Structure formats: structure tokens, C-alpha cells
Amino acid sequence: MIDQVRTFLTKSELAYQTLLSAIQSGELKAGQKVTLNELADRLGMSLTPVRDAFTLLAEQGFIIRKPHYAAVIAEKKLSRTDEVSLLRAILEPETARLAAMHANKAQIDEIADAYNASLEAVKNQNARELSRLNELFHLKIAEASGSTLLAEFITSLWKALPVQGMTLNGDTVATLKSHADILTAISEGNPDEARALMAGHVGHAADRGRAYLDSLQSSAPEDKPD
């Protein structure tokens, strides 16, 4: 296991956090029209990271795309991310239980491959790849559940999650240890343990997400990013 990891803040993550904070604080008001160029000028960034953030915020329901105009800020409501976290906490423990009951060797190998590749991503300090592999680990478990409908629904939930679902920070070691324990329970065919481990793992996703955003806020530079 990797002993030390460092925080890796991408421009897309910073753009997302900054715009999300502006929406939640009311600095960007509900009903206000916005364009990519305006937001890029606001942040002092190029269009690419702002477009990434814009797309994610639209997927999460914070921004509503309008025909013949870029978009408007949505009315405040329960965060779509919070809803996704709740549904994951209900459904993903069941996928782990079913995977422990039904997964074949090839499916277990695919879950293990995603986990092992995550360790390599940490060694290489590749935050983007780590985030992708974190998602892949969970989706491979869903596929191994034996329920195509459940796997499709879990996949749609992950598409609504923030891009920074897993990053190179102090929580990474604990997260990967949790993945290792879940993998062991599934490979050993222990459905009750797999379900309990996944429930504990996913149940704190919303808290981890809020802590991540707080860390971004505290680490954001005072000067505009280039």
C-alpha cells in the first residue's frame, strides 16, 4: 500500500469548485444567463477546464441548458450529487452482495485489475486515471452482480458524480484499503461481508465529497489561475 500521497488539484476541479461555490452562495443567481466565454473570463481560465466544469454542473442540475442560449443558473434545490450519494448508499451494497454470490473468475479478475491499476495510478501520481479507475472498480462490481438493470442504473448514477470522485489526498489510502477488503469478500464468496463493507464505504461518500470541496476552498490560490 502507498504510504504517502499528495493533493493534486486540476484546473477543471478548481473551475468546478469555484463555480459551484458561486452558485450555492448566490453570487451566480438562479435564472441568471451564463455562457462559457463569460465564465472563462470570470475565472481567468481557458475554455477547456471551464467547459469541463460547465458540463458537470449541467449534469448535476445546477445549470440548465437553454435552446438558442448557452444556459441559465438553476433554482436552488436538493443537490443532485446528494441524491446520487443517497441512491448509491442504497443500491451499491446490494451489488456487492450479489457479486459475492454470482461473480465468476473472469469478473473477479476484472475487479482486481481495476484495483491493482489504482495502486499504479497512485504511484504515478495520476489523479485523473485514479478517479477513472475508482469508478471502474465500482462498475465492475455492479456488472458482476448478475443484474443487467441494476448495473445500468449504477452506471447512470456514476455519470452524475463529480469528476473528483477520488483524488490523491490523505483519504486515498483508506479508500483503497476499503476497495481491497471489498474485493476479498467478493472473491471469497462472502455476500454478507461484501454488503456490509460496501455500505460502510459508500455511506460516507457525501461527507467525503463535502470535505474535498472544503479542501479545495482552503487550497485555492488568491490570484486567478492561468
Automatic annotation (TrEMBL):
- State the superkingdom: Bacteria
Which organism does this sequence originate in?
Paramixta manurensis
What's a Gene Ontology MF term here? DNA binding
> What name does UniProt use for this protein?
FCD domain-containing protein
* Residue span(s) of domain HTH gntR-type: 9-76
InterPro entries per the record? GntR_C (IPR011711), TF_FadR/GntR_C (IPR008920), Tscrpt_reg_HTH_GntR (IPR000524), WH-like_DNA-bd_sf (IPR036388), WH_DNA-bd_sf (IPR036390)
Keywords (alphabetical) are: DNA-binding, Transcription, Transcription regulation
> PROSITE patterns per the record?
HTH_GNTR
Q: Tell me, what's a Pfam family for it? A: GntR
